[in-house]
Amino acid sequence: MAATPAWPPRSAPRLFVAGPLVQDAQVTIEGGQAHYLSKVMRVAPGDAVILCDDETGEWAGEVNSAGKRDVVLTLRERLRAREAVPDFWLCAALLKKPNFDLVLEKATELGVAMIQPLITRRCVADKLNAERAATIVTEAAEQCARTALPQVAAPVKLETLLRDWPESRALFFADETGGETAAAQFAAHSGPAALLVGPEGGFDEEERALIRAHPMARAITLGPRILRGETASIGATALWMAVSGDW
């Protein structure tokens, strides 16, 4: 006798929607998400769709109807509560659009709690499209089965970030001129933390001196090679997650 297939299947599409979601509620999906479900994934009545709301967690919904303009589901079961993520911020200088898009995507996949874009003197960009950034992190969270979206803050100048920095949060500064070994510094720390990464051309000397003078800043080295901004952000975040136990 054949085994009963698992429900919902692991291949079920996954979407973030507005919450809060509750047991047995009917949820109507419209717009681009409805097009994705009906035309790309070709869902039909009885199929499963996984919904997350960044509040209550992850739910299995059953498709009631799938039309051209909307898809209607009934929530059958809560699969997981909203996950707890490490209290880790990524403070990354703005880069060229494709490079910063990569930072947003991979930081989400790696589990950061917040992404703080920075404006520094050598930045090639000084603006961030908030709607585009939200779409990137949401799609990344859907892809990696994350149930908690990272916060993407509005860009701020480096001087503003340092002036308003919380006294309870360590600020690990990826300094290409040298510092303590990142892995050792991460392992020795417990509590809220953040990583500060510069732009394509790095911080200038005045900015570097300002950072090093900050009481919560800790200069770290990411190895013998000069890394691109997106590489430093992704690599150091992965290292933090490995050392802190999230991996």
From TrEMBL:
Keywords: Cytoplasm, Methyltransferase, rRNA processing, S-adenosyl-L-methionine, Transferase. One of its GO terms (cellular component) is cytoplasm. It catalyses: uridine(1498) in 16S rRNA + S-adenosyl-L-methionine = N(3)-methyluridine(1498) in 16S rRNA + S-adenosyl-L-homocysteine + H(+). InterPro entries: Alpha/beta_knot_MTases (IPR029028), PUA-like_sf (IPR015947), RsmE (IPR006700), RsmE_MTase_dom (IPR046886), RsmE_PUA-like (IPR046887), tRNA_m1G_MTases_N (IPR029026). It comes from the Bacteria. It is an enzyme of class 2 (transferase). GO terms for molecular function: rRNA (uridine-N3-)-methyltransferase activity. One of its GO terms (biological process) is rRNA base methylation. The keyword Electron transport does not apply. It holds the Pfam family Methyltrans_RNA. Residues 87-240 form the Ribosomal RNA small subunit methyltransferase E methyltransferase domain. Its EC number is 2.1.1.193. It is found in: Cytoplasm. Residues 29-74 form the Ribosomal RNA small subunit methyltransferase E PUA-like domain. Transmembrane segments: none annotated. The keyword rRNA processing applies. Gene3D superfamilies: 3.40.1280.10, Hypothetical PUA domain-like, domain 1 (2.40.240.20). Specifically methylates the N3 position of the uracil ring of uridine 1498 (m3U1498) in 16S rRNA. Acts on the fully assembled 30S ribosomal subunit. Belongs to the RNA methyltransferase RsmE family. NCBIfam families: PRK11713.3-5, RsmE family RNA methyltransferase. This is Ribosomal RNA small subunit methyltransferase E. It comes from Novosphingobium pentaromativorans.
